[in-house]
Specification:
The protein is an alpha+beta fold and about 140 residues long. It has helices at about 5-60, 65-80, and strands at about 80-85, 95-105, 115-120, 125, 130-135, 135-140. The chain starts with a helix and ends with a strand.
């Protein structure tokens, strides 16, 4: 085999190996994206049940329910899903929150515009990733 032919074959092999490596990386990335999409769909489907349990926990002092809710949160955390912070007094972030009610700031002059006044419905997101459902909040308005 000539040196020229050998060099052509080596270049073809190098290109084929690079193509294979790119394909492998793309398949891994798509597999991760698919797993994330399926997880988000599953969690979104179960959100109404989660919401009812969280609301029930607010009104009941059942320690079994509290333990179950903690286990549920732990399971979501294991799936890299976390609750979106939306404590009263913190700033509204349109990337994480959805304002479903805008209230007067009233007589409290220390209330800032677009400050969260109340959490209406918990929001969830992937840790360091996309939002599954925005937290629904009441915010302080302009007046």
């Amino acid at each position: 085999m000539s040196a020229k032919k050998q060099k052509e074959l080596q270049e073809q092999l190098a290109r084929a190996l690079a193509d294979y490596d790119n394909l492998r990386k793309r398949v891994e990335r798509e597999r991760g994206d698919l797993a994330e999409a399926l997880t988000a769909r599953l969690v979104s489907t179960l959100m109404p049940a989660f919401d009812m349990l969280f609301k029930a926990q607010e009104h009941l002092s059942d320690s079994g329910l509290a333990m179950g809710m903690e286990e549920l949160k732990r399971g979501l955390g294991d799936m890299q899903i976390e609750e979106i912070p939306a404590e009263p007094g913190t700033s509204f972030d349109e990337n994480l929150h959805e304002a479903v009610f805008v209230a007067d700031r009233g007589k409290a002059k220390n209330k800032k515009k677009n400050e969260i006044k109340k959490l209406i419905l918990a929001g969830w997101k992937f840790r360091n990733g996309p939002v599954i459902r925005h937290a629904k909040v009441e915010v302080a308005g302009n007046t």
